[in-house]
Amino acid sequence: MGKTAWLFPGQGSQEVGMGRDLAAAYPAVRQLYDRANDILGFDLATLCFEGPAEELNDTINTQPALFVTSLAVLQAMEEEGRKPTPALVAGHSLGELTALAAAGAMSFEDGLRLVRERGRLMKLAGERSPGGMAAVLKMEDAVVEQACKEATEQTGKEVTVANYNSPGQVVISGDKEALERAIALLKERGGRRIIPLAVSIAAHSPLMASVVEEYRAVVHDTPFRLPEIPVVANISAQPLLSVAEIRDELSGQLTWPVRWTASVQYMIEQGVTRFVEIGPKDVLSKLVKRIDRSVTAVSVGNVESVQLLEA
After folding, report:
1. Which overall architecture, per CATH, does domain 131-199 show?
2. Active-site annotation holds for 236
3. Known catalytic residue: 204?
């Protein structure tokens, strides 16, 4: 019998209305949002349930909103007795912090404070060093990496691969001038589907470096313990085996790429045949299907999908 892995989404999966039906259906979910409101000192629940979208999409709010909503889905799964035991867990970018909390490596309260600070600092880095990101589809990784290298050399500013999402789908990130040059080079080399993303930060790039030490201090002060379920890291695509490794991973994650393809492939090599994406939308389950069509991937983000999930 195959194993199950839990996956937790990152920025881009947020949407106004997320969590609303879960909070109405399950008192424990409503209590989780209430706890989040108390910890943060503002009404995160209403922001998730009603928006406005512009405020929800602000990095400083998006990150805690997704963290709480994904854990709210997990709470609903538990209430319904539809919480399959995972062999491994992983999260994409911000989702890695949700994965760590879900695996018992940090408390909800400590995790939420850390996520809020991560969002604040990433927003600050974007203000200090404005940049952008773009999705590149149907091109070889090596071609994209070479274009980023040349664009960096030609402009004297940095652009790099931020996310290896699936074969033929990567995201590049960096200074706007270097990003535009990389896009031009990729188009010269046959790139036809290059989509600028609606973000003002250059996540997982050297442009985040200005806040890394401040974030590292916050990570250092956050109490961690070994996870009860192995968490596969974004940077190494291997399990995090100690608290020191968790702290290094989270600190380094701001400037290093998310190796999502390699992470999913590692989990499949360990015998995982079913992936359950826990949170709004279905971004990660779609990526899993592009990485390996032999496995199953489902997304769980509302009452209906929770009740349909096979435990």
Report:
1. 2-Layer Sandwich (3.30)
2. no
3. yes
